[in-house]
Amino acid sequence: MDNEPEPQQEQKKEKSLNQYASNRAPVDCAISDSSLRLLTSKMVDIYVGPESAHWPIHERLLCYHSPFFSSIFYDDEKKDYGERRPSRGNKSYGLPEEEEYTFELLVGWLYSRSLKTPKVEKDIAPLLDLYLLSEKLEMKKLSLDIVDAVREYYHTSNTYPGLRRLQYVYAETDEDNEMREMMVSSVARQLATGDKIPMHWAKALQRNGQLALDIIRAIQQWHLEERSIPDVRDGSIERGRAAKGGFSAVDREGGESVETVDTNLGVESIQSGTSDGAGVKSDGEE
Fold first, then answer.
1. What is the bridge-based pairing of β-strands 250-251 and 197-198?
2. Any residues with CB less than 8 A from the CB of 195 and at least 6 apart, and which?
């Protein structure tokens, strides 16, 4: 689908502001004071998904929060837009590859400027999709709000990101990414404080050297005091295998049948199954 709307777009589904208040959306749908000042009379038309669902949105509000859309709707003759360059006066844009529900969540945040902290683990899935869309549309404030919401969920629920959640984020983000760093640091804590390494995590670390490296880097950022770390080089102190019987074991209970996808290959859906093996407290699954 081209970014230009088709002549029969009036026959497409059209969304209105009262639809942003969906009970399933993790957003606070009251329009914020900061958003009200950006609700000028000019509107733009965004067409989302394979069915071109029509979303009329206030132009100034959208462009204020998204440099991506600002470059599209605020035509600048000195800037090279490549394939994204609109014709002068064009006030519509198509996102045919995006999910309609994910864009609904984005619009909900756009007008309310707030997100609700997830209550259950399954609420993480749509937030991660929303995060990737916010990164694509260069909506930095929304991206950071989502990271905070996901972080808050794991903290208050005393759980950690599951392997499939982390795989999904790895497959869709670059190295310098806030969501990836938060999840890796959480997993580093989970593994460092545990007595055993779950089998599915062991396989993931063996297959993906970058993930293992990132976990070590996360531990280094804790800046642990040297005196708190055992020094096996000191022969006067019993350390390591002699004192504890070797390295921590890999937890093979219920783990032999777990298949782990290489994180560099990507995961098509973050809702394609449970994220961890049996008996592992992660992602709210116990």
1. parallel
2. 248
In degrees and rounded to multiples of 5, residue 58 shows phi and psi of -65, 125
Q: What is the structure's pLDDT at 245? A: 55
Distance (Å) of CA 172 to CA 27, 76, 169, 265 = 23, 30, 5, 10
Residues 6 or more apart from 259 whose CB is under 8 A from it? none
Q: How many residues does the chain have?
A: 286
Q: Alpha-carbon torsion 15, 17, 18, 21, what sign?
A: positive
Q: What is the DSSP string of 216-274?
A: HHHHHTT---GGGS--TT-TTS--HHHHHSSSPPEE-TTTTT-----TTT--S-TTSS-
CA distance 250 to 237: 26
Q: Are 66 and 138 in contact (CB under 8 A)?
A: yes
186 contacts 161 by C-beta, under 8 angstroms = yes
This prediction has a pTM of 0.73
% of the chain beyond a pLDDT of 70: 64
Which residues 6+ apart lie within 8 Å of 205 measured at CB? Answer: 197, 211, 212, 215
Q: What is the DSSP secondary structure assignment for residue 87, as one 8-state letter? A: P
Helices and strands counted in the chain (H then E): 11, 5
